[in-house]
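re: that chain from earlier
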Amino acid sequence: MRRGSGIRIEGMVAPMGVMKRVTTVFRAKANKALDRMEDPRETLDYSYQQQLELLQKVRRGVADVATSRKRVELQINQLQQQSDKLDRQARDSLSAGREDLAREALTRKANLQSQLEDLTTQYASLQGEEEKLTQASQRLQTKVDAFRTRKETIKATYTAAEAQTRINEAFTGISEEMGDVGLAIQRAEDKTAQMRARAGAIDELMASGALDDMVSGPHDDIQAELDRMGASHSVDSELARLKAEIGQGSAPRQIEGTQDATSAADDVQPGTAQPASAAADTAQAGDGE
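^ sequence. v structure.
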């Protein structure tokens, strides 16, 4: 495969178009994250600090040029003094009749004049550079002062707008914090409703006995019926025992007709199951038929 046609990733070659798209998406997401993190006030303060540093560099440049200019000025003064001295020496030599010494003094003075011309040219150049830097420093100082005023105004406006936005969001309940509180309340209400429904379901299961069956094991209808019959027989036995105890503890009262019933029992003939009066009634009934 030709080089430069793609990027090899784990045995595969990713097309350059895909890599460009990934890079674009990454940059877009990074830019969005930076926008959320960026505070305009901090950016303005940083820009102001950068301008102050630039102004400081310009001022240092002005100071350096001024120092160089002053050094050249000192050299010019020294050479000028030497030139004046050689001029006097040449005059004194001529007065003394020493033309040769006067010629030597004038020759040296000519060399100094050449150096003075070069230094004067350099001095003029440095002076012009110093003036330019001084003017640039003054203009930059004016811009920095204006930027500082504007920066403070923008910061104050942004702070006021931010505070107003937070207050409005708090009142309308659309802020992130209020949204979190609303979601927490909604979740609490949902959980409360769920717990109430679960409690009601458990109550119904307990009332129907289904919960006991789920705890004890599978439901057996036959065994349940036998258990109910055993319980009913036990109740009947207990009831009979109570009746027997009550009958033995107190004699029954004699009611009307009891005596007639006793005498009727005495009239029963031996070997028969009915009394005489009952037999007579039976005979009469047979004649009537």
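DSSP finds eight helices and two strands in the chain.
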